[in-house]
Each structure stands twice: as structure tokens, then as C-alpha cells.
Design goal:
The chain is built from eight helices and 14 strands. With 222 residues, the chain is of the alpha/beta class. The strands form four sheets. Strands 2-1-3-6-7 form a five-stranded parallel β-sheet, with helices on both faces. It has a four-stranded antiparallel β-sheet with strand order 8-9-10-11, with helices on one face. β10 and β11 form a beta hairpin. The chain is elongated and about 55 Å long. The relative contact order is 0.10.
């Protein structure tokens, strides 16, 4: 795969790039936020490993910008920020996974493989328009409209969560089933799902639409 490695520590970047190249990946190293944005503007990547502590900007803002420009590229935040609020913010701004330093190469490789496996399994959805209350979901165009007019920009995972729920409005989809349908693995925790659902609710801004059935799962109001 072609990867962008955004890491300001030269020694860490060199060691990580060497290990990844040994696995056959092509690595483009960007030591700053600006160099990462410049590289992304002119080149294409399969995956981005993004440190959040950068000398010229906040990695969270870089993640938000990258996700706004491309909703399909895989992004893994690799950072020393271990606080829950940082993990939540990273996931809400578009990261597909969040790895806290220090970590082993075995763990990082497993997470890279899991993220890319999920992306590879995500076949183009059939052309259909799903409706739940004031919200309509065009799965082919990947567009979400509220009240027929306001278009809502969602991340890839947020869109997939909404599409799964919108296919069976009024029916409770269990936490485990929803995680498996969206992430194609049971490796993802409930907390990650809850963060994405919270962000989805905020963006849709339709009170009572996405309902929590405590201890079971989520559903869209019938």
C-alpha cells in the first residue's frame, strides 16, 4: 500500500518507515502538518498514519481537513494522547482507528490490516433511497437530506451506521450486529460505536430520530 506517515520525530519516523517498507509498503514521510496537507493535495494514498502532536499545527485539525477532502482514505491516529477526550475527538473528526503510544509493530500491523480489510470488503452499495422520518438516504450517491433540502455531510462510518438503521426503521439493531455490519469485525469496541452515533445525531439534528434501546442497541424512530 501507499502510506503517508505524519510524524515529527525523525528517529521514530525512520524506524517506523523502515519496518513498514519491509512489509512492502511505499512510505511518504511528512514531518509537519503543512507538508502532510501539501502531499495530500498532490498525491493519492491508501492509508495515513497521523501523529496528533505536530510542530506547526494540531493533528486533529489535519485529520478533519483530510477527511473533508476525502471520505474514503483510511486514517489511523498514532499518538501519545491517551485521554478519553482525545480519542473521542480523533474518532469524531474522521479517524478510522486510534492507537496510543507506545505500541508494538505487531499491534500496529494488525490494526492497519483490519482497517484496510474493512475498506476492501465495503462493496459499492445498491442504488436505493431509504427514508426515515424527515431523513432520506441515497446509498448510491452517498447523500443524506433532511426535510428534502438540507444536505448533511457525514463521515464514511456515520453514513454506514445510518444506512444500516434506515433499512429497518423501528427495528432495534444490536450493538454487535451494527459493529459487524459497519466495521466488518467484532474487534471494535462499544465506545467507538457510541462516539460515531453521537456525532451522527449531532449532524442530523433531528431530536428523537436515532434512539438508544439501553443494553440492546439502536434504532431509528418508525
Amino acid at each position: 500500500m501507499r502510506m503517508m506517515l505524519v510524524e515529527d520525530d525523525a528517529r521514530v519516523a525512520a524506524a517506523l518507515a523502515t519496518a513498514l517498507r519491509r512489509r512492502g509498503h511505499e512510505i511518504v514521510h511528512c514531518p509537519t502538518a503543512q507538508s502532510a496537507l501539501d502531499a495530500f493535495a498532490g498525491e493519492s494514498f491508501d492509508l495515513i498514519l497521523l501523529d496528533l502532536n505536530l510542530p506547526d499545527g494540531d493533528g486533529i485539525e489535519v485529520c478533519r481537513t483530510l477527511r473533508r477532502k476525502d471520505e474514503t482514505v483510511a486514517i489511523i491516529a498514532v499518538t501519545a494522547r491517551a485521554e478519553e477526550r482525545d480519542r473521542v475527538l480523533g474518532l469524531r473528526t474522521g479517524a478510522d482507528d486510534y492507537v496510543v503510544k507506545p505500541y508494538s509493530m505487531a499491534e500496529l500491523n494488525a490494526r492497519i490490516e483490519a482497517v484496510m480489510r474493512r475498506a476492501a470488503r465495503a462493496a459499492p452499495p445498491p442504488s436505493e433511497t431509504l427514508t426515515a422520518g424527515p431523513v432520506s438516504v441515497d446509498t448510491a450517491a452517498r447523500r443524506v437530506l433532511v426535510n428534502g433540502g438540507r444536505e448533511v455531510a457525514l463521515t464514511r462510518k456515520e453514513f454506514e451506521i445510518l444506512a444500516v438503521l434506515a433499512r429497518t426503521p423501528g427495528v432495534v439493531v444490536s450493538y454487535d450486529r451494527l459493529i459487524l455490519a459497519v466495521w466488518q469485525t467484532s474487534f471494535v469496541g462499544r465506545h467507538t460505536l457510541d462516539v460515531h452515533v453521537g456525532s451522527l445525531r449531532a449532524k442530523l439534528d433531528v431530536p428523537g430520530l436515532v434512539q438508544t434501546v439501553r443494553g440492546v442497541g439502536y434504532r431509528l424512530a418508525p
